[in-house]
């Protein structure tokens, strides 16, 4: 499995970002780390190894970028408005830097986005905000209501980065063309968030799969089982 390291200065986040890329061809899959995780976390915890067959056979090319969680939603040292504003810059980075990069390298017109735990939030938020760029969404143990990080403060940046708030009013036609999988488990601390998001999608008649696995917790072993299964749905 080929592996490449990239580092670049992002004008949208005004910081240097790092990323690992696995594979040399195939459908582009952006995989976000969990809470405050770095670009190498999904490799270190075996998530990338779990889909080695897909990479080695040229079916997918996986991009594992940094997040800026510690500068945005988890930064208790700044006002919630600034947390949201900082995250809006990360969203612009994805839209204007990383996604075009992945599309250009692979020659594919849309991407897949995926992540475990808080990485599932990053994936879902981007997919539902920019459905014209995303064909597949794979969330594993995600939570989707960002208001838990805003101390009661609310503004447009929070609204437009909070899927459970903006999704009910969105009528972008590509939402109905997306392959959406919400993976959770019987003892997942985030199961309720997945059921809530599934209900929103049901109300909009958006086809999706709420995958609730039995006897499992909010942890890497079940996510390593889910990820290859979900990648197999890419067509």
Automatic annotation (TrEMBL):
Q: Which InterPro entries match?
A: AB_hydrolase_1, AB_hydrolase_fold, Mycobacterial_A85_antigen
Range of residues in the leader sequence: none
Q: Which residues form the AB hydrolase-1 domain?
A: 92-146
| Record's protein name | Esterase family protein
Species the sequence originates in: Mucilaginibacter angelicae
């Amino acid at each position: 499995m080929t592996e490449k390291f990239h580092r670049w200065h992002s004008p949208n986040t005004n910081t240097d970002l790092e990323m690992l890329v696995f594979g040399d061809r195939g459908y582009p899959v952006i995989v976000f780390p969990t809470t405050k995780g770095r670009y190498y976390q999904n490799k270190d915890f075996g998530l990338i190894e779990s889909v080695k067959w897909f990479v080695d056979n040229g079916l997918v090319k996986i991009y594992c970028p940094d997040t800026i969680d510690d500068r945005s939603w988890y930064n208790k040292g700044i006002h919630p408005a600034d947390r949201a504003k900082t995250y809006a810059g990360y969203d612009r980075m994805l839209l204007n830097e990383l996604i075009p990069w992945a599309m250009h390298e692979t020659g594919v017109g849309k991407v897949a986005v995926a992540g475990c735990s808080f990485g599932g939030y990053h994936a879902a938020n981007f997919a539902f905000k920019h459905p014209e760029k995303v064909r597949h969404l794979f969330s594993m143990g995600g939570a989707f209501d960002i208001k838990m990080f805003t101390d009661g403060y609310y503004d447009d940046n929070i609204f437009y980065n909070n899927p459970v708030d903006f999704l009910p009013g969105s009528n972008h036609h590509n939402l109905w063309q997306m392959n959406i999988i919400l993976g959770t488990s019987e003892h997942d601390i985030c199961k309720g968030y997945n059921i809530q998001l599934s209900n929103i999608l049901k109300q909009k008649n958006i086809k999706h799969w709420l995958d609730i696995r039995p006897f499992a917790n909010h942890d890497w072993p079940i996510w390593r089982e889910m990820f290859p299964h979900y990648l197999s749905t890419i067509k």
